[in-house]
Amino acid sequence: MTLALIDYGAGNLHSVANALRAAGAEDLTITASPDVVRAADRIVLPGVGSFRACAEGLRAIGGMVEAMAERVHVGGAPFLGICVGMQLLATRGLEHGVTPGLDWIAGEVRLIERTDPQIKIPHMGWNDVSLGLHDPAEGLIDAGEAYFLHSYHFQPEDGANVAAMTDHGGGLVAAVAQDNVVGVQFHPEKSQQYGLSLLSRFLEWKP
């Protein structure tokens, strides 16, 4: 099983790679090659920083977005987006103006609204991950506690795409899913056993 971890200058690649290997990934390649992505059995897209910078970095690699779409939507490869890599699944991001996302899961990425003066932004640290009434990720996401670090959050248009929630002065989407695509707002690579268990399940996931 080959796994492509996409390098577009916007992720803590080595931490994610180490966590994936600890979770059982044996044939893992950190890559900026569309050809490698097009041939991979599974794809992981990390992301750290602003939505705009990440979107521009990904699109700056010629043919990468097309290779991802071909492998995931036509070839059916399981896909995992992490943090901003999850946010890029949205239709658009509203950080530093409007920036188009991949539009794989309809919705917007917008600033977390401060409804309580005691609530700090960014949302940083450990927080509960709770499951909803439906399970679009087909058992991939589990309830538990994960490490978050973000100021913007994904609001899907269709609640059926919400795989998990967390609470930070109100509900925030912790994970989204649709078919063979899943994204998590938290950092599995920083979430100790909870994160490793999730990555292990992703390596075996057959959506």
UniProtKB/TrEMBL annotation:
Q: SUPFAM superfamilies in the record, alphabetically?
A: Class I glutamine amidotransferase-like (SSF52317)
Q: Which reaction does it catalyse?
A: 5-[(5-phospho-1-deoxy-D-ribulos-1-ylimino)methylamino]-1-(5-phospho-beta-D-ribosyl)imidazole-4-carboxamide + L-glutamine = D-erythro-1-(imidazol-4-yl)glycerol 3-phosphate + 5-amino-1-(5-phospho-beta-D-ribosyl)imidazole-4-carboxamide + L-glutamate + H(+); L-glutamine + H2O = L-glutamate + NH4(+)
Which pathway?
Amino-acid biosynthesis; L-histidine biosynthesis; L-histidine from 5-phospho-alpha-D-ribose 1-diphosphate: step 5/9
Q: Name one Pfam family in it.
A: GATase
> What does the UniProt keyword field contain?
Amino-acid biosynthesis, Cytoplasm, Glutamine amidotransferase, Histidine biosynthesis, Hydrolase, Lyase
Q: Which intervals hold domain Glutamine amidotransferase?
A: 5-202
Give the matching PROSITE patterns. Answer: GATASE_TYPE_1
Primary localization: cytoplasm
Tell me the InterPro entries matching this sequence: Class_I_gatase-like, GATASE, Imidazole-glycPsynth_HisH
Q: Which Gene3D superfamilies match?
A: 3.40.50.880
**Keyword Hydrolase tagged:** yes
Location in the cell reads:
Cytoplasm
Keyword Amino-acid biosynthesis recorded = yes
Give the Enzyme Commission number: 4.3.2.10, 3.5.1.2
Q: Which residues form the active site?
A: C83 (nucleophile), H187, E189
Role description: IGPS catalyzes the conversion of PRFAR and glutamine to IGP, AICAR and glutamate. The HisH subunit catalyzes the hydrolysis of glutamine to glutamate and ammonia as part of the synthesis of IGP and AICAR. The resulting ammonia molecule is channeled to the active site of HisF.
Q: How does it assemble?
A: Heterodimer of HisH and HisF.
Q: What is this protein called?
A: Imidazole glycerol phosphate synthase subunit HisH
The species this protein belongs to is Novosphingobium panipatense
